[in-house]
Amino acid sequence: MADTNSFSMAGRRILLGVTGGIAAYKSAELVRLFKKAGAEVRVVMTPDAARFVTPLTLGTLSENEVHTEIFPENEAGSWTKHVALGLWADLFVVAPLTAQTLAKLVAGACDSMLTAVALTARCPTMVCPAMDHDMYVHPAVRNNLDTLSNRGITVMEAEHGELASGLIGQGRLPAPETIFERATQVLATQATAGDGPLAGKRVVVTAGPTRERIDPVRFISNHSTGTMGFELARAAARRGADVVLIAGPVSLATPDGVRRIDVESSAAMHATAMKHADADVIIMSAAVADFTPTTPSDSKIKKDAASSGLNLKPTADILAELGKVKRDGQLLVGFALETDNGLENARGKLERKNLDWIVLNNPKEEGAGFGTGTNRVTLLSRGDRRVDLPIMPKAEVAEAIIELAVLGIDPGAIDPIS
């Protein structure tokens, strides 16, 4: 996440969207915080939002007219006002976001000034859902939030606490101060991305495991959580890269500014990776299955039949295929998870698959491998360079990999975690 200590909100243009939920009353304080920080604020509301907080209140605090209808009356250029607002804003924040408006944003509906602006805004968008707990955890709502996240929209998860219904659970809108801080982080990240060392570069990162279907209820997979790949994507985006994250089945939020493509099987990851094989930088950190069932069953295999064994075939070697089509000036980075003869095996993989760098780690070492918040890796280059990193949080490992392998900056001495 970008450092906000030195980032100023002064002069930033914030477009605040307010929808019709009880938490709409908090939007008044949010406007006040943005204004106090020196930002210019304009507000768009759904018609139902005005039942909870008046446009007069938000207009007075923002010192700008509040819009609810797509075509404001008695205003020049009213028929293109939604376009003008979308182009004006540096950040579009929707707080609170109700389940109704969430569904409209996902579907691309355009029935209010808020939903129209959502279709025209070129700036980053951040949404703050708030609703009763059972609504918030409903599969339809979760799927809609995931859809927005996969489109590159920042989704600020609701907090756990007392709700308007009297129930206790997740669904509460965060405090205005918390929303303000997150909005500042989004803008700071965007500002850094605009002039970062990877600005204009296309970076592809693969992350997580794959699942190879045996039958409708069983699959072959591994323990990868995808954390390392997600941190690599985040580190590249922070430096201004246009990042595509190809993710296996994991439970992680999409990093800010990253375009995510979800896949499940090794075949799907292979097809998707090859579509992006012309990227400037490709980092293959996914733990792709080496084998897949020859003939997955359409029906659940009974235990007696399963005990006779499975017929398996090798999956496509995505990294090797990318190495075959690698062009001059392109950077290809692979990972090697080895339990024995690590250096020898990693160097062999580096050469066979035409990689520029390979990242070696051993899941048997303490603090390394799957399911940990830390990792211990060794980086090997085609030029026989070797860099050993101590145990560090995976976010810091990702930073070091991007700095060294992609930008050519020596990470220098890094103190291990005590």
Concise description?
With about 425 residues, this protein is an alpha/beta fold. It contains 14 helices and 21 strands. Helix 1 (about 25-35) packs parallel to helix 2 (about 55-60).
Give a written overview of the molecule.
This protein is an alpha/beta fold and 418 residues long. The protein folds into two domains: 13-194, Rossmann fold (3-Layer(aba) Sandwich); 202-406, Rossmann fold. Helix content is 33%, strand content 22%. The protein has an eight-stranded mixed sheet with strand order 12-11-8-13-16-17-19-20, sandwiched between helices.
Task: Give the topology.
Layout: E1 13-18, H1 26-36, E2 40-45, H2 55-62, H3 81-88, E3 91-97, H4 99-107, H5 113-120, E4 125-129, H6 133-136, H7 139-150, E5 154-155, E6 159-162, E7 168-172, H8 176-194, E8 202-207, E9 212-215, E10 218-220, H9 227-238, E11 242-247, E12 258-262, H10 266-275, E13 281-284, E14 291-293, H11 303-306, E15 312-314, H12 318-324, E16 331-337, H13 342-352, E17 357-361, E18 374-375, E19 378-381, E20 386-388, E21 392-393, H14 394-406
Parallel strand pairs: 1-2, 1-3, 3-4, 4-5, 8-11, 8-13, 11-12, 13-16, 16-17
Antiparallel strand pairs: 6-7, 9-10, 14-15, 17-19, 18-21, 19-20
